[in-house]
User: What shape does this take?
Amino acid sequence: MLSSYFPDTDYFKVKRNGVSQAEVFAAYLGGSAVQTVCDNPVTAYRQLVQQYAKSVDGTVVDPKVASAEAKAVFKKSPVSASLSGLWPRMIGVLLKRVPKFGLLLGIQYAGFGGGDVGMVAATGASILSAPFINPIRMIEKQQRAYFKTSGKQKPIIEILRESAAKNFLPLFRGTVPLMGHSLASATTGLVGQPQLQKWITKKLEVNTSLGGSATNLISSAVVSPIYVIITNPLSRLEVIMQTSSIQGKSIGVVQACGEVVADTAKFGMRGLFRGQGLGIAKAIISLSLFHEGRIFFMDYFKNRNKRLGNVFQP
Assistant: This one.
């Protein structure tokens, strides 16, 4: 589609795979938008389970207690809780995904790591895009941070006003763990899952009649536990650092690590991996929805290019 409006620009010209690089980028954004809307309730619930690891007086509580408190919030305000953080996440589809996917596909397009999106592109995109992504994640988590006390999500304008009083520095809390989280997400979700799906499709197409959606779901189910095991502790650090009061003293990486260590010492693996079961379910849903959306838009662009006669020209 975009190639018809920019016929003389290489970035918008149709490549061998039937789409332009710009259309690939648009498909990634489309898949991300589908994923964001559909997985938001699970995302919100998981944050609360991890956030309520400590009581109001700062005491570490049993994971079962935290889960019960998160359920109580959803029972009290199901719609508000399910939709909490959705607007910054949707805005983040552009503000977060444009730099991340732009760097990911840009590094790959420049010829680093071969023709497919690989480790070099994933690593570069994860590190370089983190400062752009972090403020959106901070705002998203701050919106949900006070459900227990207020029963409603915190207005974005209030979060920005409090951040402005500190030169917006609070918006960058949690950037360090985010880099690791983003790298794991890119390598497993954007690189590993498509490669695994190709392998599964090749193995199953001979003996079964499974379609693309089924192999997508199987691939996501295999990749997701690996991704969550790697990222769950990092996710905990983000939640600890990004849900503390903006007006109060910030929590650094070392202090956040100390809280996770104390939680683990008291409750073992249940303390370290709070929300992991939810994380795996969310990852399977999110990853499957993302790739279903991405493939849908890719197929749309390919079919449109064929219909309009936009073909690859060496």
